[in-house]
Amino acid sequence: MTPQAARSIYEIEQIARLPRHLRQYIVEQNYHDYSPVDHAVWRYIMRQAFDFHRRHAHASYLEGLERSGIGLERIPRVEEMNEILGRIGWGAASVDGFIPPAAFMEFQAHRVLVIAADMRQINHIEYTPAPDIIHEAAGHAPIIADPEYAEYLRRFGEIGARAMSSREDFELYEAIRHLSILKEAAGTPAAEIADAELRVAEKQAALGEPSEMTRLSRLHWWTVEYGLIGDLDNPRLYGAGLLSSIGEASHCLTGAVRKLPYTVAAADVAFDITTMQPQLFVTPDFSHLTAVLERFAETMAFRRGGRYGLEQAIRSGNVATWQLSSGLQVSGVVTAFLTDDEGAPVFVRCTGPVALAVDGRQLAGHGKDTHADGFSSPVGRPFGCERPLEELDDRELAALGLEVGRVGHLEYPGAVTVTGRLERIRREQGRVVLLSFSGCRVACGDETLFDPAWGTYDLAVGEAVTSVFHGAADKEAYEQVAFVPRERTIKVTADGPTRRLEQCYREAREIRETGQGLGRLAGLFEQVRAAHPDDWLLTVEILEVLVRHGADPALQAQVRERLAALSASSAERAKLIANALRLLEN
């Protein structure tokens, strides 16, 4: 590894720019924890995948794989990947398994590819229910080299980071993460997996109307993870889930999997993350992906704003930001709003800590400490105001009776009134965003919405709620704590027999790479056959070395006989062995 590749991950430009709330997800790759068996599994999958993808993957993947520097022989280091990705303006960071969708999207918006550091077990060699480094490094990273596709990923992350999610979404995420951990862990009792599957089914049934994040996650799944491209009758692979799963990659191109044109309707098609998919969607080209994404974005709260956006914010129960036409952004938990006779919002209420911002930057003096107990404000154009209030200069404000040091009175549609002594007019970027009153009473008819005894009243200025989106406008200032799952992926501790098997794999790799010590292969073969009767991958590797060097025909015959016996005992194993032999003999 070059000295530059050995830099701390936080010295990588794209990682250094990440906000604190995303950095907390990053974990050490702990490269030394990968066992010789892990590297052998990587090599088997990558050699099989490369052979298959030469015929069936999109050309951008093959070109990107060559440019990425990701080799077929051993698991890559994230530091090395950063060296390559940095040349195209991207970075990579290790995380622990599934992370919440909103965080995943935000990483993507910052041009950072999250790498699940774990490696799948040999018994999940064709398909893993949990994200792993093969899926991330060999699936996602190479195709990012295509500029059009890379921009689609970035834009998807940018839009996804604003998507509204619900409590039910998060509960389902936790249930799926738990199930994937159990399925990938060695020796998990079947009853425990069954219980986890039942919990996932229950959470899915309780989702109700899918949230924006759920529907957007489906678009991500059917493109970035499991997308096909080109002709409907003869598509090619580009989704990372297909590129990293030799089993599903071959299966998906058969008639057993329906191929559908990719449209916005894919957002309404649910998926099961723990099994192979019954249908896939085909995009004609990468530009079509962006067109569909933008079409979907038009339906989202951050574009629609208004009543729809506020309803989505209330449903989420999470911190959200509603933005006014003046540019003022109000971040907090939206709990209620009033409307006029036409259904347009005329008053919005938030509870708990609230912060005010403009253009994603918190306004000085208007953080969570100032608005610790909530925030509420009328929305719209006051009566008697010929132009939007935010556009008025001091002379025009005075004509409305709004002068600093004097009592002013405003009446809004929906019978909302504001009466108090104006203390300050605040402008940002040439527009009025806040009017601060003392001794202020805000009412809707006979109902008091703000009492003078409650202190200074800050009136948010804006004709309309133009956008509503997930999270705080200024997450760093708001100190919005993203949830990092407490449950960690299960790290398998090798016992004595496993360590001895790993040593056998290590010796076989050394012999293959150096071409020396061929005479030791017979002993390795006998040791594996006697002590590890179900292990087939090392037996394949031993045969590969013998064939490559034309060595010991008698031992080759014994190894082939052993592989035939292993194949006869399991149809799944027979397929894996047959695939390996096909490569060996081509």
Task: Summarize the model shown.
The protein is 42% helix and 19% strand. It has 586 residues and is an alpha+beta fold.
Could you tell me how far the N terminus lies from the C terminus, measured between alpha carbons in angstroms?
32 Å
Largest sheet entry? 6 strands, antiparallel
CATH superfamily of the largest domain: Aromatic amino acid hydroxylase
Radius of gyration: 29 Å
- The CATH architecture of the largest domain would be Orthogonal Bundle
Helix content percent band? 40-55%
Q: Spans with pLDDT under 50 lasting ≥5 residues?
A: 1-6
CATH fold node name of the largest domain: Phenylalanine Hydroxylase
Give the number of domains.
Answer: 3
Shape annotation: elongated
List the helices and strands and how they pair.
Elements: H1 13-16, H2 20-23, H3 36-56, H4 59-68, H5 78-85, E1 91-95, H6 101-109, E2 112-116, H7 133-140, H8 147-160, H9 167-184, H10 190-205, H11 212-225, E3 228-231, E4 234-237, H12 240-243, H13 246-252, E5 258-261, E6 279-283, H14 286-297, H15 301-304, H16 306-316, E7 320-324, E8 328-339, E9 345-358, E10 361-362, E11 375-378, H17 394-399, E12 407-412, E13 416-428, E14 431-444, E15 447-450, E16 457-460, E17 465-470, H18 475-478, H19 496-514, H20 521-531, H21 537-549, H22 553-568, H23 571-585
Parallel strand pairs: 1-2, 3-6, 5-6
Antiparallel strand pairs: 3-4, 7-8, 7-17, 8-9, 9-10, 9-11, 12-13, 13-14, 14-15, 14-16
Helix pairs in contact: 6-8, 8-14, 9-10, 19-20, 19-21, 20-21, 21-22, 21-23, 22-23
